[in-house]
Structure formats: structure tokens, C-alpha cells
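Let us work through a complete example step by step.
Step 1: write down the sequence.
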Amino acid sequence: MDVVAAVMMRDGKILIGQRKRGGRHPLKWEFPGGKVEPGEDPRAALARELREELNVEAEVGEEMDSYEVRYPDGFSLQLHFYRVTQFQGEPRNLDFEQIVWEKPERLPEYDFLEGDVSFVSKVARGAAEPR
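Step 2: predict the structure and record it as C-alpha cells.
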């Protein structure tokens, strides 16, 4: 399974969301995004997810990172992080417990999903750039 995640920046901060308390991985933090449907282009999937989760129209740019994530229960996925080059509309929380704009260097202070931790570390130290 392919999963796409957005790196949306504004005023030097990145938008992150906290998963709802009743769902899978409750209250863990993540980057907005979601599953790529069969036959769907990853960038188009991310634009769709951002409409559904945040009510914004986004232009998805370069892939910043991609790697396989394996969870202890055997579930695995390919995670793709993309830079959002611009977006229209003010992000509205339609799918999270809460959303926050945070400085990149402060991201490790949040309890991120296990699959995001490696990328969060790169972002925090300024090592994540588009490929």
C-alpha cells in the first residue's frame, strides 16, 4: 500500500495533525495525507486527501522522501512525503483531533506515528529537501 503525506509550510512552520482519539493510533501526530487508491497518481491522491482533511486546494511539488514502514503486526506500507508548493484556502480541521502549525525543529517534541519519526528527525535538523 502507498501512503502520501504533505509538508505544508507557512511562515516557517509546518502543518501537522493529531489523529482522533477513537481511531487507529489514537492521538498520534502525523502529516496530513492518506492512502493512494488503486490507479490513482500519488500527487493527485495527496491533493484529494488535503481537500477532504483540510478543505484546501493544494499544488503538490517534489517528493522529499520515501521509505517502507513495517509495523509490529506485519502491516507494511510505502510512505511518500511531498512538499506542497502552494495552497488556496485557510486549512480547516475536518478530520483530526487538532491541527497545529509548528516550527520544524520542534517537531520531535510531538508523539508522531512510528512511520513518520525518521522523516521528522530529518526535517528537524534541516536535512529533508526535495529529491
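Step 3: interpret the result. The longest strand covers residues 57-70.
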